[in-house]
Amino acid sequence: MIWTRAEGCRVWDEDGREYLDLSGGFGVAALGHRNPVISAAWAAQPVVHALGDLADAAVTAALRERLGPSKLGVTGEDAVEIGLRTALLATGKPGIAAFDGAYHGTGLLALAATSLEAFREPFAAWLPGPVHRFAYGEDPGPLPGDAGCVIVEPVQGRGGARVPPDGFLETLRQRCDAAGALLVCDEIYCGLGRTGVIWCSDGLADVILTGKALGGGLPISAALFVRPELEAVWDLGPEDVLTHTHVGNPLACAAALIVLDAVPKLLDGVLVAGERFEEAGWHGAGLLRAKAGDWQEAWRRRVIVVPAGPGVRSSPPRRR
């Protein structure tokens, strides 16, 4: 299918057929497709491309200040790479503790932490490690001696909107403290208000990873250093050793500032809408939901959902 127009929670294909988009573009269009405030912010930018880590546009500098200690990326996978590499730089330990059902991206380091074997198997010979895999939602016990971090989704996205038991993140915090490891919380899908709170791991994580919704439709991500001193581990010389051509893209940064202003005002609406999904048989939290179903059949009925294991997943735009 080819989309030719999108607005709010609706999209249209090349034949003019209208669809209800319950995917929100894989959770990216948090404020709806073609949001007019974001579009105006894009149009107002006097610079549409700066020089990444060498020279920021003014709007990029404003976003960096707004986020606080952090490192910008372009994709969600970039944020995962930054989080995992921060742990290695900070602790000197290469081991990664991760969980079944996890999805962290398809680059080799992120894929090593990811649990989906269909994605991993073709590249197994190249995957870095060591990675120690544990059952999601359960106490992993004392961490292996080489573990520099635990990476976890506070609510799993691609794994099927899985919500862990109460106390799971607190237990991971304790295990990390005992082992001298970082707790890296991948909130690329579940964060920025998707589940009804800004950050599911607030007050527990050492590093919070964000992306998807942050750019309001354009690619941008970030690793937020909850422990501010972690930013300094990247001071490795005059050149940034992990950067991209489009890091800090001004259009994406302009959208991110709009998203950061808007999301806190939408949290109550996310919880109300989430209750309606719950009543209709969707499990999960807020507006990150999944249920048994056939995504292809839904598309035939002009409702866009995405596969989630044996079922379907929904992450629609948010509204008041």
Structural features, described:
Helix 2 (36-43) packs antiparallel against helix 8 (250-262). With 320 residues, the chain is an alpha/beta fold. The protein has helices at residues 24-27, 36-43, 58-67, 76-91, 108-113, 117-120, 168-179, 250-262, 267-279, 295-300; strands at residues 3-7, 10-13, 18-21, 70-73, 95-99, 131-134, 147-152, 182-186, 207-210, 221-225, 283-285, 288-292, 303-304, 306-308, 311-314. Strand 14 and strand 15 form a beta hairpin. Helices cover 29% and strands 20% of the residues.
Helical fraction: 25-40%
What is the oligomeric state here?
single chain
Average pLDDT reading: 95
Order of helix and strand elements from N to C terminus: EEEHHHEHEHHEEHEEEHHEEHEEE
- In whole angstroms, the N-to-C terminal distance is 30 Å
Give the radius of gyration. 19 Å
